[in-house]
Amino acid sequence: MHELVYLASQSPRRRQLLDQLGVRHELLLPGPDEDAEALEATRAGEAPRDYVERATRAKLKAARARLIARGLAPAPILCSDTTVALGQRILGKPADAAEAAATLRALSGRLHHVLTAVAVWDGRRTRFALSDSSVRFAELPEAVIEAYVASGEPFGKAGAYAIQSSLGGWIPTIRGSYSGIMGLPLYETTQLLRQARVRF
């Protein structure tokens, strides 16, 4: 049994969700010589499911190389990536306030999907899972959008929002995994970690 996993993610929400599962973990973050953002770049015409799987597998490959380069003790590596899809349109992390506001206007009153991919490498093989949840926003008043953008909350988040923030009060329905929408689907993650023989 493995006593810990390396989490190759800077997301405090993913750390919190692993803590919730009772999984001991250490961060395995990119160094200053790595262009981590480049791994999340979208490709023209790429479907959201294909994109989130490719980005997650690319992050895992980079994390494996990082583990070896740093000479760290072997342990499973967990990577994850979340994207928001409005139809076939990928809504990534907003670059600025104008893009954040435009993203939230596009989501207002509509149904969208939150896709979170998880990959675990146990030293021998990679296991992969994809969580697909749907979220419907009520109509968002312009004042709500402006205040939310001014709070700084949209930045660093796919789709320019976090379901566990104040904007959760404008979401009447979700179908799927609440933790997956937060950034790490607990059910799928538990299955992958058990298969990788990680102790809980």
UniProtKB/TrEMBL annotation:
GO biological process: nucleotide metabolic process
UniProt-recorded Gene Ontology molecular function terms: nucleoside triphosphate diphosphatase activity
EC id: 3.6.1.9
Keyword Cytoplasm: yes
Job of this protein: Nucleoside triphosphate pyrophosphatase that hydrolyzes dTTP and UTP. May have a dual role in cell division arrest and in preventing the incorporation of modified nucleotides into cellular nucleic acids.
NCBIfam families: maf
GO cellular component, one term: cytoplasm
Site (Important for substrate specificity): 13, 82, 164
Source organism of the structure: Ideonella alba
Keywords: Cytoplasm, Hydrolase, Nucleotide metabolism
Domain of life, per lineage: Bacteria
Protein's name in the database: dTTP/UTP pyrophosphatase
Ranges that cross the membrane: none
Cofactor list: a divalent metal cation
Gene that produces this protein: maf
Compartments (UniProt record): Cytoplasm
Family indicated by similarity: Belongs to the Maf family. YhdE subfamily.
Reaction(s) the record says it catalyses: UTP + H2O = UMP + diphosphate + H(+); dTTP + H2O = dTMP + diphosphate + H(+)
Active site, renumbered: 81 (proton acceptor)
